[in-house]
From TrEMBL:
Subcellular location: Cell envelope
Protein name: Iron-regulated protein A
Keywords assigned by UniProt, alphabetized: Signal
UniProt cross-references to InterPro entries, sorted A to Z: Imelysin-like (IPR018976), Imelysin-like_IPPA (IPR034984), Imelysin_sf (IPR038352)
Annotated Imelysin-like domain residues: 48-339
Main location: other
Any one GO cellular component localisation term in the record: cell envelope
Presence of keyword Hydrolase: no
Annotated signal peptide: 1-30
Amino acid sequence: MTRLPTIRFLHSVLSLGVLLLAFCSAGTVARAEADHGAVAEAALTKVIRPGYDAFAADAATLAAKTAVLCTDPSHKSLADARAAFVQAVKGWSAVENFQFGPVNHEHRYERLFFWPDRKGLGYRQVQRALSDKDESVTSVETLAKKSVALQGLPALEILLYGKGSDALASRGDDAVFRCRFAAAAAGNIAQLSKDLVQAWAPGAPFTKSFLEPEPDGALYRAPKDVTLELFKAFSGGIERVRDQKLGRVLGESAKRSRPRLAAFWRSGQTFPNMAGNLRSVRALFVDGGFAGIVADQSPGVEDSILFDLNHSIDVLAAETEPVAEAVTDPEQRGKLEALRVGLKSANTTASGLIAEGAGLSFGFNAGDGD
């Protein structure tokens, strides 16, 4: 199986300024620590579970539309399959930040989203399978045992949007095999998303450990551990957009930009994906209870954080140019660089106040490991 990307989900490290803010604030007014159980319950029922439910529904539609494309190829059925792919990316974007729990089991995360792929491994493997007409990629059961780079949304994007994909509207031999591969990938995505819904269902083992941590628990031993996990998803979600998805693609200059490192650049979903990631961050902040924790520490600051998040979402959602053009256009680069500054401000401010209000401590950078 393909070696998994060494850089996993990035999480924030508190800056010296934030630590000083927390230290100084701690000496003023004593406040009750956050209700960790309420944070977990709200995050699960208002953000995580609805997100996975929606993604599973989108993935099921994608599998159905891709199957129709294979049985009745036409320009319309290809357009329908691509539209379903766009919607599935939107669904995935809402849960992508939650890199913990069931999605870590059996490499589900990487099987759904093998990214970043700096060396283009996924593209090479997809092209090899197409060239060899490898039958093992044409059924969900056998594809699920193949390299993670062949199984998920990035691989399906290559099949639906990459070179030669327009032939899917016809019945040529190459197009037929390509479509069978695409249908298997879409079916695999649908099955994985269904598995995740079941794993987060009421009464499921992980759900129980998430809502009712026990002192000898394998994952969480206290409610505060769950809050820390959610905080990493919040802070890491911002950093992932700011540094991995924007910073590395923008590069140090227009000439050194690397648009093909971007997620979903072939389908034009790079900026919608980032906007969706930040909407998920915002939902966790507002509906998951972090905004209330911030407000308890410093009333009114939660509005400033929301302003930065909302502005960033609006800027990304308004981007209509392909990412390759946006990162080389001086005006667009200026907007995106300013957006990164706003995100850093929101993350730094929120991190310090959430850590203080929730009584969280950090002994390591969770983004360092494999």
